[in-house]
Design the sequence.
């Protein structure tokens, strides 16, 4: 997330993004919940040593059997174990009682049980075989269901590409819509069931994603019948080989629900709509479909059918149902809730429906959302519910409750009084306890209870204990939303790290060892608080350490000849897009905010006056020989600036090949005032969740003054440290591309490569571009059919590195990662696209210290590492 991924389908949409819409996207996409009680000052005390979670290296992705892939690398996740909303969990009701989780952007995982699996106590990702455009980047899953009579069969509700059309710009593009996928082998392979052609909306990463469901359900008495309760298109059913059909029978039209449309008349994709489907199994048998069915409709209440879905009656309960659970005796439990639009007016309750009557059993007040409820198999009165960081358990049907406040964080210096959970990695802060999504009692073991939130999955093996102990179960569950990977070439023997990452939610990590969970996340000192949020931080002048909120790093770089020197830029993810940033002098161990940031006095949109505007997020590049010389191209705020004194002061970068001064000249038009500045980059200025890698330093320039830049259509180069820029003669680069990447060859000065990743809706890829004269001219690399990303790694000779691309070569129809040992003349695949297509890839980086070692950053699937075994 949490995506963090932004799925924006067209140029026009990007251009009309308003700050308000972006803020709403930000709130939706944050993968971790906003912590509560954050106003306490950081306390300087002797803290316990953070937990270091050791990996027995995470499970390797299975290799392909093709002889063409004899050189295939072994692929696995970098061990991080956290971050990303696990929005739902289901357990198969028959042996082997498989546990499945769904995530908002990272697909589905199955837990590999100790009794029957190869990777004991590990999560196995089940959707890595889908390509990076399958679901607009990443794979968000809105619901999952297990066929009760055939537990190897599972269903998943996703958004995926359906039709292909030619847009006005001449490009072939995908149309996306909701689809129900089915697997008959526990997630090893998937097929579509045909919902896609009906254009049903699925919003796996929208508001209420962690509070609703399961929207998918299989009739427990007739596995030919599948239901899907959608957000914006009502209730759907599929019976055997027949097509999906919408079910009405008296159900309210979704268009009648509150806030179906926004105030501006546009579709509201955040409405919960139809939220769950639940069967009373007693009312059917092997010869008769289940007769008694319940459906939740947010804004209308609970609806019941007593004739297998033909007709429906509103039995109410409350008008905001979210999740449900039904006991073996037919007792129905429903969690209700509505989030207040302004952070206030949040309401919720828990109710029981039994013998035709509702009983309120709300455990702890109505001012909170109860996001999940579960009931014990064969024990109708044992019920559990969750709300934020609280777990409730009742053994008398909700008459009385035991309340437990979850303690799921490691030691947090901002909250030193909080209980430490010894299973938490060191970077899990106190608010890792908050934002619960779902809870589930294991039908095969009533003492075992599973719990999920925006950090991952936890479990207790004895819920009957006086104080149950929940432990994180995160081995190989990697849903971190990654933006960038850097591998500074400091030798490991001299204290270098395996890699440094820039990510959403936790800023980033210094990964000392790719098989060990980091103990801490990047946390810069002296970031001033956003004054607009003084109400939230009344006692702070600077954000304390560890950084107390969710924040993302959008760009990170190092000085190639001085790999201890690093810098990053990013943004605060809920306090008003406030810029965050930092420099490190010790290879990423410690970080300090810039002494200043690029700032300009710019005219307000209504031209009523000027306001101070600062650089926010974007990309940063560092000179390979002079770490004091940096260039910063922000997402929002100022134009591109450079510094020659390590960030103490910044100056505006100038474009020597600018267009003539506008006539007439508007003194209150910021673009006119910057007509001779380096132009803003289209892909870099859309939204801070979209990282466009449009800025780079030449790694091999002995003077350390050469920088490269791409504004969305034209390439620029600077030979004086970013002060002045010239426009390249290269023409006809792909335009309106979200993730272009400038990748200089670290072994040859002036050798520059550019890749253009497909936009999510684009069917066809783009060429790989190569310049041998410092970006003055470019040629298309003829040996490559299409290239999404390009990277360099150590080769056999110091001046001839290996080149890696993610794309297509020859007659390939699916993207793979390829390697070239001869500067792009010949390529061979090192990944199997039938198994791993790196869904939601965002960046690649090789290691210049170790041959055959490559990292791949992904949307919602963490970071993959490939290496030759």
Sequence:
């Amino acid at each position: 997330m949490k995506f963090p991924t932004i799925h924006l389908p067209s140029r026009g949409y990007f251009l009309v993004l308003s700050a308000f819409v972006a803020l709403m996207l930000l709130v939706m996409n944050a993968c971790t919940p906003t912590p509560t009680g954050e106003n306490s000052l950081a306390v300087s005390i002797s803290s316990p040593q953070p937990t270091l979670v050791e990996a027995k290296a995470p499970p390797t992705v299975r290799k392909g059997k093709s002889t063409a892939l004899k050189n295939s690398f072994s692929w696995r996740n970098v061990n991080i174990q956290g971050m990303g909303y696990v929005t739902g969990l289901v357990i198969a009701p028959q042996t082997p009682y498989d546990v499945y989780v769904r995530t908002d952007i990272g697909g589905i995982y199955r837990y590999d049980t100790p009794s029957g699996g190869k990777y004991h106590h590990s999560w196995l990702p089940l959707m890595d075989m889908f390509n990076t455009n399958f679901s607009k980047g990443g794979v968000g899953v809105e619901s999952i269901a297990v066929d009760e009579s055939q537990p190897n069969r599972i269903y998943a509700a996703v958004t995926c590409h359906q039709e292909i059309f030619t847009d006005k710009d001449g490009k072939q593009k995908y149309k996306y819509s909701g689809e129900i996928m089915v697997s008959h082998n526990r997630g090893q392979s998937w097929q579509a069931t045909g919902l896609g052609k009906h254009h049903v909306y699925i919003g796996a990463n929208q508001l209420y994603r962690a509070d609703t469901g399961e929207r998918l359900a299989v009739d427990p008495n007739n596995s030919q019948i599948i239901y899907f309760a959608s957000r914006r298109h009502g209730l759907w059913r599929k019976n055997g080989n027949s097509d999906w059909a919408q079910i009405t029978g008296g159900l309210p039209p979704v268009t009648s629900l509150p806030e179906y449309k926004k105030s501006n008349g546009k579709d509201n994709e955040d409405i919960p709509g139809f939220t769950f489907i639940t069967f009373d199994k007693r009312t059917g048998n092997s010869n008769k479909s289940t007769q008694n069915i319940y459906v939740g409709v947010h804004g209308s209440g609970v609806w019941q059918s007593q004739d297998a879905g033909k007709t429906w009656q509103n039995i109410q309960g409350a008008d905001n149902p979210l999740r449900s659970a039904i006991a073996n005796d037919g007792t129905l439990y429903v969690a209700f809730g509505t989030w207040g639009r302004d952070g206030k007016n949040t309401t919720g309750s828990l109710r029981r429906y039994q013998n035709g009557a509702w009983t309120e059993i709300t455990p702890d007040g109505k001012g909170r959302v109860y996001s999940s409820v579960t009931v014990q198999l064969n024990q109708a009165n044992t019920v559990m519910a969750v709300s934020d960081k609280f777990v409730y358990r009742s053994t008398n049907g909700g008459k009385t409750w035991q309340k437990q406040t979850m303690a799921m964080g490691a030691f947090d210096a901002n909250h030193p009084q909080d209980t430490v959970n010894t299973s938490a990695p060191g970077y899990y802060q106190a608010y890792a306890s908050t934002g619960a999504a779902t809870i589930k009692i294991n039908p095969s073991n009533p003492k075992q209870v599973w719990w999920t939130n925006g950090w991952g999955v936890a479990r207790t093996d004895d819920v009957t204990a006086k104080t149950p102990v929940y432990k994180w179960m995160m081995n190989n569950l990697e849903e971190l939303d990654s933006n960038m990977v850097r591998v500074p070439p400091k030798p490991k023997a001299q204290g270098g790290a395996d890699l440094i990452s820039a990510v959403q939610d936790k800023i980033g990590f210094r990964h000392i060892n790719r098989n060990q969970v980091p103990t801490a996340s990047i946390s810069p000192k002296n970031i001033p608080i956003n004054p607009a949020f003084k109400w939230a931080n009344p006692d702070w002048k600077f954000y304390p350490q560890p950084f107390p909120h969710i924040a993302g790093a959008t760009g990170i770089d190092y000085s190639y000849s001085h790999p201890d020197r690093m810098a990053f830029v990013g943004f605060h993810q809920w306090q008003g897009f406030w810029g965050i940033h930092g420099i490190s002098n010790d290879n990423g161990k410690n970080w300090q905010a810039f002494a200043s940031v690029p700032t300009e006095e710019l005219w307000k949109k209504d031209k009523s006056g000027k306001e101070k505007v600062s650089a926010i997020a974007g990309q940063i590049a560092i000179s390979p020989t002079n770490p004091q010389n940096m260039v910063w191209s922000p997402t929002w705020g100022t134009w591109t600036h450079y510094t020659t004194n390590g960030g103490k002061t910044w100056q505006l970068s100038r474009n020597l090949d600018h267009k003539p001064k506008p006539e007439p000249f508007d003194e209150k038009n910021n673009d006119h005032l910057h007509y001779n500045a380096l132009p803003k980059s289209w892909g870099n200025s859309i939204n801070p969740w979209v990282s466009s890698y449009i800025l780079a330093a030449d790694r091999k320039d002995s003077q350390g003054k050469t920088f490269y830049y791409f504004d969305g259509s034209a390439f620029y180069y600077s030979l004086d440290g970013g002060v002045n820029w010239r426009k390249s003669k290269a023409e006809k680069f792909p335009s309106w591309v979200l993730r272009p990447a400038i990748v200089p060859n670290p072994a040859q000065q002036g050798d520059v490569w550019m890749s253009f990743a497909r936009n999510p809706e684009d069917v066809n890829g783009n060429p790989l571009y190569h310049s041998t004269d410092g970006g003055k001219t470019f040629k298309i690399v003829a040996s490559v059919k299409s290239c999404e990303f390009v990277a360099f790694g150590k080769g056999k000779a110091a001046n001839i590195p290996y080149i890696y691309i993610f794309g297509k070569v020859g007659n390939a129809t699916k993207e793979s990662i390829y390697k070239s040992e001869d500067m792009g003349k010949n390529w061979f695949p090192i990944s199997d696209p039938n198994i791993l297509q790196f869904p939601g890839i965002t960046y690649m980086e090789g290691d210049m210290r170790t041959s055959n070692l490559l990292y791949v950053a992904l949307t919602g699937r963490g970071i993959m590492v490939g290496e030759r075994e």
Remarks:
- Residues 442 and 448 are 6 Å apart (CA to CA).
- The chain has three helices and 57 strands.
- Residues 19-29 form the longest helix (11 residues).
